[in-house]
Amino acid sequence: MSVKVKRWYRSRRNQFIIFIILILCIIYYISLHDSLQREPDLDLTRRSSVIMYIEKKLEEALREDKGTGCEIPQLDPFAKEVTQFDKTFPKIKCPGKDWVRCYLSECKVVEEILSTTSDILCTYQDIIYHNDFKYKLGPPTEVSGDDIYTLDRSDHVKIKCVGTHHNSLLHSKWTGYAVGFRKSVERRPSPPDRNDTPNVLIFGFDSTSKNGFIRRMPKSYQYIMRHLEGTLLEGYNIVGDGTPAALFPILTGKTELELPDVRKATKSNETLDSMPFLFYKLKEIGYRTAYFEDMPWIGTFQYRFKGFLKQPADHYLRAFYLEESNNGKKFWGRNKYCVGDTPQYQLMMNITEQFFKLDGKKFCFTFIADITHDNFNMISSADEAFVEFLKGLRERGVFEDTMLFIMGDHGARYAYIRDTLQGKLEERLPLMYVQLPTGGGAGAGAGRARRVLAGNARALSTPHDVHASLLHALRLPPARAPAVRGADLPRALSLLQPIPLNRSCSEAGIEPHWCACLAWKNVSQDENIYWRTAQAFVDHINKLTEPMRSRCVPRTLLSIKWVMRQMANKRLLTFSAAKDADGYTGNFKAHVEIAKTNYQVKVVVSPGDGCFEAVVTHYVKEDKFVIDNRDISRINRYGQEPSCVSASHPHLNKFCYCKEYLN
Questions:
Q1: Residue 219 shares a structural domain with residue 300
Q2: How far is 104 from 183, CA to CA, in rounded Å?
Q3: Angle 218-227/383-395 helices, nearest 10 degrees?
Q4: Which Pfam families is this protein grouped with (predicted)?
Q5: Measured between alpha carbons, how far is residue 144 from residues 121, 179, 628 in Å?
Q6: I want to staple 490 with a disulfide (CB 3.0 to 4.6 A). Which of 331, 354, 428, 481 is the partner?
Q7: In a domain? residue 89
Q8: Could you tell me if 271 and 262 are in contact, meaning their C-beta atoms sit under 8 angstroms apart?
Q9: Quick one: 388 and 273 in the same domain?
């Protein structure tokens, strides 16, 4: 007897359930698609939506600030609000004595060792670059006594030496590293019309605001302002978060989102080699190029990105620092700021100084991070050395035919100083000092260019403008200058041409939350909106973690550090029409109804004492609060708090506090 088995999918009830599930999935997909611009955290797969979101935000801001200009905040570098965090550390001293030094292409044992040690035998191994994440040591070469080892395959070597000290019968040993310049670099001849284009030196410090440099590098600041002939840009404003947001625009003229997606998180095989870096353009016209950056384990182009397959510049320190630092492990040791007997910042200055003794046209970008990245107070250790570095270049006449930039990528980001309102503004106003060639052969228009540059000191400027200025000075074809839709000005303007004082943040491509020109005023605790805005933020992050409520506990408001209201330009709000036929003056009697108000909040939530900053938009008529996840910053470390969701939901890392840690 056969038994008829009823298939589950033939049941009318089950078919109805399947139909409902399909409908819900379609509705969810549509709602997700519609919310992409509000959820740019999903940019791993929806990068184009993030671009559209930013463009839309800039267009919205442009409608409010177009042509209104920028009132640069007048910040006292020595205000108690920020100086309370200053600390004085002992000057960096490196123990021991290096046996070998390289100068240009020649490496040899130093005189002090030769005078105290006999029977010296040194073994040299070139540190050979393969790609940004791979290098090798070349075959060993033995050199005796005071004989010279010539750099040929690489700019850097690992060295092991043995010898007998005059006061001992035992062998002495030394192992170390040295940097110079190999002779084998092939350089194209410069075209005849390039004789009067300048050399370029960009010398940068990580996490260095203009005010931070004035506070912690006082001797360098005084030397620059009294003895050099350039301009300190008061209105230099960042265009995004972190070092790449500064260096990509300076070196390519584009933002990260406008370049190929080469993040490690993507599955593509693309690397940074395909990007239009200035190094490549200059090499084609005969320039010798150098890119010197320390701390390779958090490298600008390697920490989040896939790096380069071929070194971007003729002279490149990445393989050297990977080997010398044991891929960053050195930074957890006692002498983390040293390379042998030399402070690392001093090595960076030394190699830069040597670079400008090489022949031909030169372009050098040096970027120091080790004494600023984790504790900005450490930069003071380099103050006197930086003065001597600048003084040496000036006395040698290097600046006569060299365009000089001294810069920071942004101000302090995670230090306590950022907890203050002034620190928040300083983060957005990094150091940027520009000096044109000082020599008489700088060209007939040099005097005018210097006056124009000085006139732009108080104008709003950005990293995009630095790139445009480099193209201008080097007589390279200007890049296609994108503009925010509706703007009358291109996003990038050369600092060697007058920048309109009515240029606004949106016209310069600066999103509102990065713009230091905005008038933010503290909201009183007596105002109801003070408490409502903070609670709206806490409700928002709890909504984000709601789908994982079985793992993530709800957060509660512990304290409010501050709430600030963005105040629109009063004259913008009250302008009604031109008072005269020519439009020279305006009539300011209008009453404008405010549709929405932006607030910035800083709160601490429980459990875990998580500290957050966020932009909260209040739509007045609807009385609703809107928060975009891109506008939320977690200020303190979250550590292991989100470990229960980190693997499956990494976008919740800064919001989730796992239940397992409650006890």
A1: yes
A2: 9
A3: 20
A4: DUF229
A5: 5, 19, 66
A6: 481
A7: no
A8: yes
A9: yes
Residue 57 included in any domain: no
Report the largest interatomic distance among the alpha carbons of the chain, rounded to a whole angstrom.
110
Residue 142 is which amino acid? Answer: E
Res 196: pLDDT: 86
For residue 96, the Cα-to-chain-centroid distance in whole angstroms is 34
Same domain, 371 and 505: yes
Q: Tell me which DSSP letter residue 568 carries.
A: P
pLDDT on residue 571:
37
- Name the token pair of 440: 């008489």
Check whether residue 439 and residue 559 sit in a common domain: no
Residues 414 and 532 in one domain: no
Give me the CATH number covering residue 356: 3.40.720.10
Please tell me the chain's helix, strand, coil percentages from 3-state DSSP, rounded to the nearest 5. Answer: 35, 20, 45
Mean pLDDT by 10 residues, the chain (663 residues): 54 74 67 38 57 84 85 84 89 95 97 94 98 97 96 97 86 95 87 87 97 97 97 95 93 93 87 96 95 94 94 97 92 89 98 96 97 92 98 97 97 72 86 93 73 96 97 90 86 96 92 79 92 97 96 96 74 34 34 71 95 92 91 90 92 94 85
Where in the sequence is the domain holding 436, given as residue range(s)? 192-514
Q: Is 277 exposed, middle or buried (0-12, 13-18, 19+ CB in 10 A)?
A: buried
Question: Nearest CA to 236 among 76, 411, 81, 379?
Answer: 411
- The C-alpha atoms of residue 568 and residue 519 are separated, in whole angstroms, by 7
CATH number at residue 605: 3.10.450.10
The per-residue pLDDT for 46 is: 64
The residue from 514, 547, 573 where one domain ends is 514
Both structure tokens of 523 = 């909201």
Has residue 639 been placed in a domain?
A: yes
Convert 191-250 into a string of H (helix), E (strand) and C (coil): CHHHCCCCEEEEEEECCCEHHHHHHHCHHHHHHHHHHCCCEECCCECCCCCCCHHHHHHH
Token duo for residue 4: 């008829």
Please give the structure tokens belonging to residue 639: 């550590």
Tokens coding 478: 């200007």
Number of domains in the chain: 2
How far from the centroid of its chain's Cα atoms is residue 372's Cα?
A: 12
Which amino acid type is present at position 451?
R
Report d(CA 556, CA 553) in Å as an integer.
Answer: 10
Q: What is the pLDDT of residue 355?
A: 98
- Tell me whether residue 233 is in a domain: yes
- Evaluate whether 552 touches 644 at the Cβ level (below 8 Å): yes
Helix (H, G, I), strand (E, B) or coil at 40: helix
Are 469 and 528 in the same domain?
no
Give the Cβ contact number of residue 356 at 10 Å.
17
**Is the Cα dihedral 306, 310, 315, 317 positive or negative?**
positive
Give the DSSP per-residue string, 342-405.
EEHHHHHHHHHHHHTTSSS-EEEEEEE-TTTSS-GGGGGGGHHHHHHHHHHHHHTTGGGGEEEE
Cis? peptide before 607, omega within 30° of 0: yes
Report how many helices (DSSP H) and strands (DSSP E) the chain contains, helices first. 16, 25
Which residue, 537, 563, 564, 556, is CA-closest to 632?
Answer: 537
What is the pLDDT at residue 594? 63
Sign of the alpha-carbon torsion through 115, 116, 118, 120 = negative
One-letter identity of residue 95: P
pLDDT of res. 630? 86
- Domain end among 457, 479, 514: 514
What integer pLDDT is reported at residue 45 of this predicted model? 46
Q: How many CB atoms lie under 10 A from the CB of residue 281? A: 17
| Residues 595, 500 share a domain | no
